[in-house]
Amino acid sequence: MIGILKKNVYERSPLLNALLYLLLLIGAFISLFPFYWMFISMTKTTAEIFTFPPNLLPGERMMINIANIIDRVQYLRVFANSLLISSIYAVCTILLCSLAGYSFAKFDFKGKKIIFSIILMTLMVPYQATLIPLFRLMYFFGWGNTYQAVILPTAANVFGIFLMRQNMLSVPDSLIEAARIDGCGETRIFAAIVMPAVKPALSALTIYMFMFQWNNFMWPLIILRTNEMKTIPVALSGLIADGQVIDYGMVMAGTSLATIPIIMLFLMMQRQFISGILSGAEKG
Amino acid sequence: MKNKFVLTKHTAPYVFLLPVFVLFIVFMLYPIVQSLIYSFQRFERGQFTFVFFDNYRRMIQDPLFRKTLGNTFTILLVQVPIQLIMALFFAVLMNTRGLRLKGLFRVSFFLPALTALVAYSIVFQILLNEHYGVVNYLLTILGLERVPWLSHPVWAKASLMMAITWRWMGYNMVIMLAGLQSIPETLYDAASIDGAGKMTRFRIITVPMLKPIILFCAILSTIGTLQLFDEPYILTRGGPNNATRTVAHYLYQQGFQYARFGYASAIAYVLVLLIGVLSYIQFKLIGDSE
User: For residue A188, what is the enclosing H or E element?
Assistant: First the structure.
């Protein structure tokens, strides 16, 4: 640490410099500590987690806790549900948003302005305002407690449409025109020319949508009834409901196993992901 | 070839938009409109009957609704400014010239935004435990009293705000940092030559240049706070004594635990109205130049 501070070539006083790093380190520590706590808690019993003073070392119960969570909420099934719902959701949303974004970015058609502004306006409507009709609608379709009930309501994602439109605006018109003159069909232009041109935005949005659905809680909680259909957050929240003895080690095993894939995904695709959020901010 | 349907420049956008359009109408526009209609109705024995403004009248007199509205606004007025100021503060620190380990810091600050709300709410439940929690342990080391984080109405609100700040501060910071990095260095250099000190440069360059981004973060945080559900549902279960019950949590209870669809829809429309009004005010306050 000292070496890092000394090498700084800019004109700050050493004291100020130390303060800067101290503040950042404290911030980073506070951000990361709950993760550390979660991961070590999955290796302990509830009694070992709640000790005073707290014990920061890992215990030996990891495999038992994992076995317990698998047993208790059919964790493998629940994990597969989350994976399936989030993946299908991400792929569908990307495809739908790209198609819509492309239409808004590169075509002129009647009603374009009105449709686009109505879609954008719904960004301001809270999710909760749609829940009750949505709930009744799903049961009307006979889709209570199904995957499609979780996937479909937000598949036409407004943020996604907006983001894809912004990115597709920068695809050169001449490229599309040239393909048309060469006799390329409209679907092929979309699939073979426009989509590859916005690849970075596509991967950013894919991760974003995957994570959104992976962590989604309120709607799945409402629409998913049986244990076999639940997603990870819904299943875990059932374990800490009032009036039961909570096995925190087991619950932490569940949360850790749900968090690790997301962190890995993020670390692998960090750059695209952050730029994805930003392209929403810059044009928001 | 005549009978085969071929997409042209003129038909393609309609065909491409069709799936989104259908989904949008069925799962977005219809529920939004239907919800408004429900808010003027009462649901009893499987039937909706029109009661006009009864739900709204009842809401005004409902002490629990007023309490949840008060809680939500307390969080909005206290937590959102703190979070935005902290995010700006850390973004400015991160934007220091020649800062080392920047990537590492950025990832650390951003990671909380990736965790499921359910996961981190449970972790915070343990960390804030009155008798065995790490936070209280630190307080006792410093010679302070233990704080009843989750069982005292005021402290429970504070806990909720701490948890939300932990999760969202870094997300806002990353956005603001990108905004800061897009401000040209030459502006600062020019101001320095004119004799502007650090604070002056921050006030006359950074803040105005960053206005649109701050506005974006403020609106997102406001919308998020007004819809706050996951954290109070898991971390504090709305308690103690409803001190942390939010409007969205109350809506969930009324709608999905007591099947009061009409009343819950009216609550939802109060949220719609609040978000509209607050976003408009923020636009006027911060974004007057735009």
Answer: helix A186-188
Is A131 close to B98, i.e. CB distance below 8 A?
no
For the cut 90, the answer to whether the pLDDT of residue A93 exceeds it is yes
Residue A2 in this model has a pLDDT that exceeds 90: no
Q: Where are the domains of chain A?
A: 1-33, 65-283
Q: How far is B141 from chain A (nearest CA, A)?
A: 10
Distance from A56 to chain B by nearest Cα, in Å? Answer: 10
Whether A168 and A106 have beta carbons less than 8 Å apart is answered as yes
Residue A41 φ/ψ region, left for φ over 0, alpha for ψ in the -120 to 50 degree band, beta for the rest: alpha
Give the percent of chain A with pLDDT over 90. 42
CATH number listed for the domain at residues A65-283: 1.10.3720.10
Name residues 138-177 of chain A within 8 A of B (Cβ). Answer: 152-156, 161
Q: Would you mind telling me the total number of residues written for chain A in this entry?
A: 284
Collapse the DSSP code of B4 into the 3-class scheme (helix H, G, I; strand E, B; otherwise coil) and give the result.
Answer: coil
CA distance B131 to chain A (A): 8
Interface touch B271/A266, C-beta < 8 Å: no
B155-209: pLDDT as tens digits: 999 999 999 999 999 989 988 988 888 888 888 888 888 888 888 888 888 888 8
Which of A 71-90 lie inside 8 A of B, CB atoms? none
Examine residue B92 and state whether it is found in any structural domain, yes or no: yes
The reply to whether B244 falls in a domain is yes
The answer to whether A50 contacts B132, with C-beta atoms less than 8 Å apart, is yes
- Asked if the structure places residue B116 within a domain, the reply is yes
| A166-182 pLDDT tens trace | 888 888 899 999 999 98
Contact partners, residue A67, CB within 8 Å, separation at least 6: none
**Tokens coding A33:** 């500590």
ipTM of the complex: 0.86
Which chain A residues have a beta carbon less than 8 Å from that of B6? Answer: 185
Which of A22, A132, A138 has the highest number of chain B CBs within 10 A, making it the mutation to test binding with B?
A: A132
Report field, pTM of the whole predicted structure over 0.80? yes
Residue B29 in any domain: the answer is: no
Q: Answer left, alpha or beta for residue B116, where phi above 0 means left and psi between -120 and 50 means alpha.
A: beta
Nearest to B14 among A109, A118, A237 (CB): A109
Number of domains in chain B: 1
The whole domain housing B152 covers 63-286
Give the CATH number for residue B170.
Answer: 1.10.3720.10
Instruction: Average the pLDDT over B145-151 and give the result.
Output: 87
